[in-house]
Amino acid sequence: MPSYLEVGMVTIIRVFHKYSGLKGKLKKAELKDLINNEMNHFIMVKNETLDELFADLDQNGDLEIDFKEFITLIAMVTSACHDLFIPVQSKNTYA
């Protein structure tokens, strides 16, 4: 049976490919849809913010977000939200 972490990793991969399709890369509109549909409780983007975010993520400058670039977003949002879910006094306690 897979662990919670493994299930989470598979979910991230599946969600990415749900929006990127067979090409395995996200255009700006696809990234916006993914964020608005799948991450809307953790991050909200407006068009101006999306332009900046997309430029920051697109490390190779190809105007698309590949999986490695997408994982950067996941890591940033997860890190920013960490303390909301694990209060300081219980960081050593796991569910």
TrEMBL record:
Sorted alphabetically, the Gene Ontology BP terms of this entry are: positive regulation of canonical NF-kappaB signal transduction; positive regulation of cell population proliferation
Q: Which residue range or ranges hold the EF-hand domain?
A: 45-80
Question: MF terms per GO, please?
Answer: calcium ion binding; calcium-dependent protein binding; RAGE receptor binding; S100 protein binding
* Superkingdom in the source lineage: Eukaryota
Q: Which SMART domains match?
A: EFh, S_100
Would you tell me the Gene Ontology cellular component terms?
cytoplasm; extracellular space; nucleus
Q: What is this protein called?
A: EF-hand domain-containing protein
